[in-house]
Specification:
Elements lengths: L4 E2 L3 E2 L5 E6 L4 E6 L6 E5 H12 L8
Antiparallel strand pairs: 1-3, 2-3, 3-4, 4-5
Length: 63
C-alpha cells in the first residue's frame, strides 16, 4: 500500500464523507471515509481537474 497522506473528511448530508489524499510520487487518491484501504487513484492534475469541473457545475446532471 502506498504511503498516503489523507486530508480530513469532507462530509455532505446524511454523513456521505469522502477523503482526498496524496503521496510523495505525485498521485492523488479519493475514498469513502473509513474505507481508506479501498481507493481510486490518478495524478494530482487529474484530481485537480475533476474538482475544478465539479465546482464549475459540470457534474450537476449527475445529482
Amino acid at each position: 500500500m502506498p504511503d498516503i497522506t489523507w486530508e480530513p473528511a469532507f462530509c455532505g448530508e446524511g454523513n456521505n464523507c469522502f477523503r482526498l489524499g496524496t503521496d510523495g510520487d505525485g498521485n492523488a487518491y479519493i475514498t469513502v471515509n473509513g474505507q481508506e484501504d479501498r481507493y481510486l487513484t490518478d495524478t494530482r492534475e487529474a484530481l485537480r481537474a475533476l474538482i475544478t469541473d465539479i465546482k464549475a457545475g459540470k457534474a450537476d446532471h449527475l445529482l
